[in-house]
Amino acid sequence: MPEFLFAEAFVMWGSPTTWLEIVAVVIALAMVGCNIREIHWGWPLAIVSSLMYFALFWRSKLYGDASLQIFFAVVAFWGWYQWLRGHRADGSALRITRLTRRGLVLTVATCALLWPATGFFLKTFTDSDVPWWDAFPTAVSLVGQFLLGRKFIENWAVWIVVNVVSVGLFAYKGLWLTVGLYSVFIALSWVGWKEWKRRL
């Protein structure tokens, strides 16, 4: 990543904001806008945004969130394919749908297992000063990304929870522009939920 992107653009509430964070915010907003409208170009934007946020989070010692960005970049290729060529088990086209009751139980159970496992890993193998707090959005985002890729409407509820926790985490780290971004994400997740419900 070019070093000039890490240069300070301005100071917000006592913390420096880099050009990298500014560009990443703009691309991330465009990505979510595409997701809400079911436009498949949101996935390549996700790849670019994720790689930028990997660099930003790593420098802030948010290793869980940094690693998550690499996962996002890789999974975005899968999500892009799903939106272009994916289909349901019965062979029908991949359209917006709801989780079954069994799917909801599996979703909650997966989140409940991934969070402590991720937190334990971060606490044991990194110098993160917020391992459990960092672990929650990391773990739950994995589930949200899968649900989004398969066009389950419940992905938006998962993202609301992830974004609320992330706002507190990034505020603690002084990433104020990203705090603003994730605050907007909360609102956009609600908009996405309502829009997908209308399409459903």
Describe what this molecule looks like in 3D.
The protein has 200 residues and is mostly helical. The protein has one domain. A two-stranded antiparallel sheet has the order 1-2. β1 and β2 form a beta hairpin. α1 packs antiparallel against α2 and α6 runs antiparallel to α7. The longest helix has 25 residues. It is globular, with a radius of gyration of 17 Å. The mean pLDDT is 90.
Query: Which of globular, elongated, flat, extended, rod-shaped describes the shape?
Result: globular
Radius of gyration: 17 Å
Contiguous runs where pLDDT drops below 50 for at least 5 residues: none
- What separation lies between the terminal Cα atoms? 41 Å
β-strand percent reads under 5%
What is the count of distinct domains? 1
Helix content: over 70%
Largest sheet: 2 strands, antiparallel
Q: Can you count the beta strands? A: 2
Query: What would you call the structural class?
Result: mainly alpha
Question: What's the rounded overall pLDDT mean?
Answer: 90
SSE order, one letter for each helix or strand? EEHHHHHHH
As laid out across the biggest beta sheet, the strand order is 1-2
Number of helical runs? 7
Question: TL;DR?
Answer:
The protein is mainly α.
Overview features:
200 residues, mainly alpha, two-stranded antiparallel ribbon
Any chance you could write out the topology, listing elements then pairs?
Blueprint: E1 8-12, E2 15-18, H1 19-36, H2 42-59, H3 63-85, H4 101-125, H5 131-149, H6 155-172, H7 176-199
Antiparallel strand pairs: 1-2
